[in-house]
Amino acid sequence: MRRRKPAPVPPSASAGTSGGARAVRIVEPTGLDEGSPAPEFQLPDQNGRTRTLSELRGHWVVLYFYPKDDTTGCTREACALRDEFVTFSELGARVVGVSLDRVKSHERFARKHALPFPILSDRGGWVALAYGVRRGLGPLKYAKRVTFLIDPEGRIACVYRNVKPRTHAAQLVADLRVLQECR
């Protein structure tokens, strides 16, 4: 009896789960660019308080999405933003983090690293989907590391898709200064 060759796996799929099942990577489109209105959201922060984008109207907003609390890159990025928090405040900007982790995980993460800004829990991934940053591998869903700099009128001023956690906060501060000078 001849053995059949397995069907080729498309590039977007990866072999990997037990029992020979394959997990297919889900990639949603990213349709938000500079000048687009930022989608409204209503999500709980690490303290259980509901936060909305509209409450930040009139301020610059650094809305950063990240994959998972307490992982190396995410911790590095959050701590760099924390270290520039006073500078962001002086520039009239609010920093807000978003991931698909639970509120309790955010609470531990924020406390452990003394994060002075809200971290929002997008458990259903709907806000990440609206911003075009939700990704998945089979049943596992996460937010891609992307930052949106939103102007005081609620429009996206800059989108950072290739974030380097160590240098991202400094880049945001520099860009925010330039954008404010142009206004």
Please write out the topology.
Layout: E1 13-15, E2 22-27, E3 42-44, E4 50-52, E5 60-65, H1 72-83, H2 85-90, E6 93-99, H3 103-112, E7 119-121, H4 126-130, E8 134-137, E9 140-143, E10 146-150, E11 156-160, H5 168-182
Parallel strand pairs: 5-6, 6-7
Antiparallel strand pairs: 1-2, 2-8, 3-4, 5-10, 8-9, 10-11
Radius of gyration: 18 Å
Number of strand elements: 11
Q: What's the helix count?
A: 5
Gap from first CA to last CA: 74 Å
Overall, the morphology is: globular
Task: Write the element-wise H/E pattern from the N-terminal end onward.
Answer: EEEEEHHEHEHEEEEH
What fold name goes in the CATH topology slot?
A: Glutaredoxin
By CATH, the superfamily comes out as Glutaredoxin
Strand neighbour order, sheet with most strands: 7-6-5-10-11
Note the beta-strand portion: 25-35%
Mean pLDDT: 86
Can you summarize the main beta sheet? 5 strands, mixed
Low-confidence stretches: 1-29
The CATH class is Alpha Beta
Q: Label the CATH architecture.
A: 3-Layer(aba) Sandwich
Give the number of domains.
Answer: 1
| Class inferred from helices and paired strands | alpha+beta
Q: What fraction, in percent, of the residue positions are helical?
A: 25-40%
Please sum up the structure shown.
The chain is of the alpha+beta class and 183 residues long. Helices cover 26% and strands 27% of the residues.
Structural write-up:
This protein has 183 residues and is α+β, with helices and mostly antiparallel strands. The chain contains 5 helices and 11 strands, in the order βββββααβαβαββββα. It has helices at 72-83, 85-90, 103-112, 126-130, 168-182; strands at residues 13-15, 22-27, 42-44, 50-52, 60-65, 93-99, 119-121, 134-137, 140-143, 146-150, 156-160. Strands 7-6-5-10-11 form a 5-stranded mixed beta sheet. It has a 4-stranded antiparallel beta sheet with strand order 1-2-8-9.
